[in-house]
Structures are given as C-alpha cells and as structure tokens.
Design brief:
Layout (H helix, E strand, L loop, with lengths): L10 E2 L5 E2 L9 H6 L4 E6 L6 H4 L14 H6 L8 E4 L17 E8 L8 H7 L21 H9 L8 E4 L17 E3 L2 E2 L6 H9 L10 H14 L3 H32 L13 H17 L5 E5 L21 H5 L2 H27 L13 E6 L15 E5 L8 E10 L1 H10 L20
Parallel strand pairs: 3-9, 3-10, 5-12, 6-9
Antiparallel strand pairs: 1-2, 4-12, 5-11, 7-8, 10-11
Helix pairs in contact: 6-9, 7-8, 8-9, 9-11
Length: 449
C-alpha cells in the first residue's frame, strides 16, 4: 500500500474550500496516537433548571430547596454530607439520556462563586468556567479570569488548527444585554473569546471557504480530489470515509434549508425578529453536527457550546413545544404558572445534549473506542434553579471519558463544594499538571476510575 498523507493534509476543492480528514487506521501511527487525547466540550444551559424535574427526590417540592438535605432524609439518611450511588433511575428531565445511562454521571451539591453587587445572570454565564475567588481580580465587577477551556487548550490544543471553538446558539442580533450574558469563554478578564452563532459562518470557518456563491457544494469538489486517496484506504476506513462525507453533505443541506427559511421569513412582516421564528431544535442540532465534525476531524480538541443566552427576553420558536415563539427567561420568572412549559423547555435542552452525546457515541475511532469515550462532555448551568436564581447545588452531568471515568453514578458532594473542583479534576484528566484552579479545594476523586 502506498504511504498515505498525514491526516492533517486537507482535501481542497476548486471552490476554495478545504476538508480535514477524520482518523483512519490506514494513516500513520503518529496520527492515530492523537486519537488518545482526551478532549473537552462544555455544553451550557442558561437560566438553570426546574429542580423538581431534574434533581432526584425533588419531584414533590413546590419551593426549590437548594440542596439535597430533605431528599436524602426521605431516603432514611440524616443530614448527609456526601453520598454516591448507582444512577439507576433517571428523572423526567434526564430521560432523553436513557440510551446513554452507562456513559453519564450526575453530580450534585456543587456551588458557583458569586461576587455580591453584580447581576446573577451575567455572573452565572461569564464566570461559569472561571470561578475566580470573589474580589480577587481588581478592576472588574465579575469574578472572571481566564476560563478552563483556554487553560486546557494550552495543553491539548497547540497542534490543532483551532485551539478552541466557541459555539453559541443565540441567533438574535437585537441584543440588549452586555457580552457577559452571552458568553462563557474568555481569554482573560475583559478579553472575550468571541463565539460563532451562525451555522454557515461556522461551516466557512471550519472548511476555509470564504464565499457561498458557488452552486457546487464543498464535498462534491473535495470528493473529486479524494478518489486517489480512497483507493489506499482499508475497507473499514472506506466506510468511515463515506460516513464522514455524508455527514458533511447533510450539514450543507441543513444550512441551505435554514438559509432559505430565513430568506422567506424576511419577506413577512412580524413583531419579533426573523430569528425568533427559526426552528430552534433544528438550529441547535445543526450547530451540534458542526461540533461533532470538528472533533472527528481533529480540527479542535476543546469547544464550548452555549445552547442559549442568559436573561434574553427576545423569544425563540421551540418548534416541538409551542405554536409561537416564547421567552425562556420570562417564563422562568413565572415558574408557578408556567411550570409545565418550563419543564418541557428543560427536557428540550436535554434532548439537544443527548443528540450530541449520541452522535459522539456512534462515531467509532480506529482504536475501537467511540469519540464520546475520548471526550469529556459536560452539561451544566450557572444557576441551580431558574426561578429563585440560586447559584448553589448546580445541575451537572458529565458524559464520556471512557475507562478514565466512573460512570452511571450519582455523586452528591458536601454542600458548598466549589464547582472549581470539577474543573480542576477535568484539567488533570486532560493532562494539565495543575493542583489548584480558582477557588478549588481539591479534585473529585469519586469521578475517577
């Protein structure tokens, strides 16, 4: 067999586009070794959750408790500081993860740092991945420092085309809030890592195409250049090759569909912005498909994925839930009357997380493991409850990690455990020689295999 090019060699089409290759067992061992790197993806959900739908044992709680003390008392334990048990039963909000139950761990009891005197929504987004000690950083109203994703990328991202990728599913341009409500990734205090909100812009960034005027899609052009390469692939790699390019074709079709819908909506006079009427689930899953392709092809090892912004009053069309656009933030301030609708939104967000996790779990790498096995995929929010705005006992789910993680567990940490303990644990799993992160007090050893 002829020696194949390094996987980082790209297939360039006539239209100025470029496609990176996924891992192939036929490619040299140096590239296959890269697939052993543990990647990191942070999936952020805004405005917390309805606790009675998400947290085990709180189904009958009308007023959020903020901790699991009463829950465990109902299970016969008095004033528990810590417990760990098998995750056998999923709450209604977590039900979309049923097929992945062996690949996830629920973590409760962790608190996020809060600096008094500034807006809770702004802090829960912008400080979610930094958690600096209150008032430690001078000249800022937020306890915001360089975020975890960029620290990890310093270790596992230097050799990738993109050290980090920042995805945002906030399609609105009529933003009245500051950048602190709409970003979780920061190079440092006051230095935003700008997110990409438009699927077409993300596609162009990943595949180096500067225009969309060509009627021929990038994959058709690239495939014409790829025939010689395909001959030298093993049978398994040929199947992987076809699957990869088919996923790109599907993304292109979805982008075209979304753009056509946006153009049609622009012709209609309506009270809300055009983006309010775009199908929400399709939009988020399209961004999720782009995320998976970026990880699969080694374009990045670190990504943040913000499923929505904090405290945005502009509505979205949750196409599978409601017949007109709704504001998640406004609903959260009326939880008593809108509890059923909010529970549906929480489950909707979990379905999008499950979609990405399942895509990663179905992507097989040359070493026989899945892309999810090689990724720390974390679902979380900077609020423990959307109506009370509490920033303690956050809803956190960690998926993936393969044999380095203890999965199918529910770990309830002692009340007041810093969220930074999780970030320190993940940093060490990704190879950082780090012993302190922000206000951490230690790692979460119960997570480790």
């Amino acid at each position: 067999m002829n020696r194949l090019p390094n996987r980082r060699t790209v297939l360039r089409g006539l239209g100025g586009g470029a496609l990176a290759l996924p891992w192939f067992e036929s490619v040299n061992a140096e590239d296959n070794a890269e697939s052993d790197t543990l990647r990191m993806v942070q999936f952020y959900v805004p405005i917390g959750v309805v606790r009675r739908g998400f947290f085990p044992g709180e189904a009958d709680h009308v007023i959020p408790k903020g901790n699991l003390g009463n829950v465990m008392a109902s299970l016969g334990q008095q004033n528990p500081k810590f417990f760990e048990r098998q995750l056998d039963e999923l709450t209604p909000t977590m039900q979309p993860l049923a097929a992945l139950q062996d690949k996830i761990t629920l973590i409760t009891g962790m608190d996020r740092t809060f600096q008094a005197g500034t807006d809770v929504h702004a802090q829960c987004a912008s400080c979610y991945l930094s958690s600096a000690r209150p008032y430690e950083i001078e000249g800022t109203a937020w306890p915001l420092d360089r975020t975890l994703d960029h620290l990890v990328a310093d270790q596992i991202g230097p050799n990738t085309p993109f050290r980090t990728l920042e995805f945002s599913c906030n399609s609105h341009r009529d933003n009245k809030e500051s950048i602190y409500f709409d970003n979780i990734s920061w190079y440092g205090t006051g230095h935003l890592a700008p997110s990409i909100r438009d699927p077409q812009k993300m596609y162009r960034r990943l595949f180096s195409t500067s225009n969309s005027q060509s009627q021929q899609d990038i994959t058709s052009l690239a495939l014409a250049d790829a025939n010689d390469l395909k001959k030298d692939l093993s049978q398994a790699d040929r199947a992987r090759f076809e699957e990869y390019f088919e996923s790109i074709r599907t993304i292109e079709k979805q982008i075209a569909k979304l753009e056509a819908l946006r153009s049609s909506l622009n012709q209609v006079k309506m009270d809300e912005p055009t983006e309010s009427h775009l199908p929400r689930g399709e939009y988020i899953r399209l961004m999720g498909d782009l995320l998976v392709v970026a990880l699969q092809s080694g374009l990045t090892n670190v990504a943040t994925f913000m499923v929505g912004p904090e405290r945005w009053d502009t509505p979205y069309l949750y196409e599978s839930l409601f017949d007109k656009p709704r504001s998640h933030h406004q609903m959260s301030h009326n939880q008593t009357k809108m509890i059923d609708d909010l529970l549906r939104v929480d489950r909707f967000h979990m379905e999008q997380f499950a979609y990405i996790a399942n895509r990663l779990a179905s992507t097989i790498r040359p070493n026989g493991t899945t892309l999810l096995d090689g990724t720390l995929l974390t679902y979380g929010s900077g609020l423990g409850d959307g109506s009370t705005h509490q920033y303690n006992d956050l809803p956190i789910i960690v998926a993936g990690g393969g044999d380095r993680m203890r999965l199918r567990r529910h770990i309830n940490l002692p009340e007041g455990t810093p969220l930074a303990n999780l970030w320190l644990t993940q940093a060490q799993l990704c190879g950082l020689p780090m012993h302190q992160f922000a206000d951490s007090t230690g790692i979460i050893s119960q997570l480790l295999a």
